[in-house]
Fold these 3 entries.
Entry 1:
Amino acid sequence: MVLSKLPDVGTTIFTVMSRLATERQAINLGQGFPDFNPDSRLIALVDEAMKAGHNQYPFMPGVAPLRQAIADKIETLYGHAYHPDTDITVTSGATQALMTAIMATVHPGDEVVVLEPCYDSYVPAIRLAGGTPVPVPLRTPQTDDPYYRVEWDRVRAAITSRTRLLLINFPHNPTGAVLNDADLDALEKIVSDTGVILLSDEAYEHIVFDGVLHASIARRPALAARSILIGSFGKTFHITGWKLGYCCAPAALTVELRKVHQFMVFTVSSPMQFAVAEYLKDPLPYLNLPTFYQAKRDRLFEGLKKTRFRPLPSPGTFFLLADYSAISDVPEAEFAKWLTTEHGVAVIPIAAFYGKPDAPSSNRQMVRFCFAKQDATLDTALERLQRV
């Protein structure tokens, strides 16, 4: 009999809900991927790269043009200069980047502070590295302040002599929360006081709304000096299936990251790397992304206001939360399955992002909608939701 390394892990809620959506022919507003194609020019660039002969193993840390393009983008946007040769590694998506970063830095017995609710790959990765996850809940929305927020005093109190890593994710999946300058100030003080390494998942960096600038840790030299920054081209260019991301970190950390990376995947799809490197020469696709997704956010938000759901503000990401307490008092996972089965719209329960999804404290009658969809898809979903 096999002794499981992850005895508490089964099929993820994302797989469960997507399979149920397929079986019921429901509209899938659950899993976070677009139902539209990327820019045809980007697809053509992949074709060109293949025809140019970029079809064999590329350089292990990533092809030079892409690492340079990543360095240029970050320095232009956030002011920090990562060296493309020593500080940047191209990965097979942000999830592999996270696993690599955690395996490279966390040792058996180390603690890792995570913010709950959190993306479902964080805790299993920590456990596989032999670490212990220490969850700190975000402050939930209040009547006079309808946003999830970090209570930094609680984060600081959770850090002990055994803490190796503080893992953050902003813009935040699933809540859409974003950071501001005061949050970066608090982070700087925590890192300065404790010497903890900061792992910053910034997969949604270009999806921040209402004219707000993304508060990347790369904006603060003191943070960048002790941080691993993770990005995702899948979210930025509507190519989640290409699995293309990256890690940026000081050279000493990058050495350790690459030791794990080379034995985890060795390297990443060659033609996709060359295509994205060329595509990045034009900044407009990612600079225009907030406007593109804000229109979809507003479309879904206004549509949900005409239903019995109560939508919450979404400052960032392509997700929006909604309260269903006026419809039902059943637990979130049960409600999500009922909504998919009976009304043909798949969503994700927020309780699934907590370590104890069945606990009453994890069930606040909240579900997550993904609005990275065609307008026609959103409109059809809203028609169905208005009948709930």
Entry 2:
Amino acid sequence: MSGLFSLPREEVAPGAVHVPGWLSAEQQRELVVVCREWARGPVPIRRTKLPGGGVMSVRSVGVGWHWQPYRYSRTADDVNGARVAAFPDWLADLGRRALVDAYLDEHAADGYAPDAGLINFYGGDARMGMHQDREERSGAPVVSLSIGDSCVFRFGNTENRGRPYRDVELGSGDLFVFGGPSRFAYHGVPKVRPGTGDPATGLAGGRLNITLRVTGLG
């Protein structure tokens, strides 16, 4: 990444910022490698079952904490009972640098200590419905990183799943941060654009999304 104040950015809503091209090609390749390691275990990547009986179209794996609707746990009792991989310090450092660059404030990451990472892999037909990230007991910002195929990212309001919302094109290497007044905004991915990614990232197809969160669970 090029550092503070040097990349184009757009405030999509108060506290919600899009920074295109934040990750370098090398950083993307490194993240793809480590995400593949996490996908193999100790808790393997899977499609999450929803309380109503449906199954999500994205495949997910967590580090630090295991996520399932609508809670976190240290062990993946709905998969294989294993304890999830530890949340690495370098990933927390990456999250702090993301906040500084997104908010153009060298103090934006003061006290920010993400302890959960959710890795979602989207195939060409995968979607994510409008939802809020409310499992956390913290109002700290969410940091989202995209690698591979671009997507339409729908960023809405804090009251409901409908309008007003804004559709943002997220490409490979893009950073999106939402905190403050937008921390609990509804958001989703209605469309992935197959074939738009660069195989040089190490991802031949599909979209990889990595989100960093502060659970507040101790």
Entry 3:
Amino acid sequence: MDTIEIRRRIRTGEHTGPTSGISGDKVQANLAILPKKYAFDFLLFAMRNNKPVPIIEVLEAGEYVSRYAKDSDIRTDVPLYNIYKDGELVETVDDITSYWQDDFVTFLIGCSFTFEQAILDAGINIKHIDQGRNVAMYKTNIETESAGIFHGNTVVSMRPFKKELVDQVIDITNDFPNMHGGPVHVGDPSAIGINNIDQPDYGDAIEIGEGEVPVFWACGVTPQNVVLNAKPEILISHAPGHMFITDINNEEYKK
């Protein structure tokens, strides 16, 4: 299925779930939409925190068509959106047309689903994809570098792998520095402030089996965590795991 058809299926409500594994070799993107008055601070925040917030495109105020996705509409082409007002999640919707403002600036942020495809291409299974679940994501004690109103801690995604595969997985993901790159932590979750691995803050719990090691990557859900501190009057983001699908080949982001 090509990306135009995937976006059409999302737009019409035929696909409503997480997007992990559905776009093959095409880049998926996290989403952050803010009023223009916050755009510089957010862009500076992203530049200072490229690991969790790697920007791949910025749409100017009022624009909603990505140059990297033919016939796309940012307002309808994500399966689920989170609406935050004054730092509080107020609604999750499948269409943000009614919320749209002419001063909205949209940021598309690199997504770990890109390196997931590279892991799969290497013949390594990924547990949450095999189980048809969303990836597990956690708030951590890893601080970001603040910029303007934006400050807070990094969110990570977790995937368990057999111990003997961890080094190979690290090497694969290091090849995608603008898609979160290599992991920020391997092993003991408590070392990065995760007290209960069975209760993710976002996504679905994934069991860590015997002989498996949890591996953690910086995650594009970080802006949603940071907005809890910044409290702008509105921020619209993707619901975790529900991405915007572009026409860009993953290989274009391989170093």
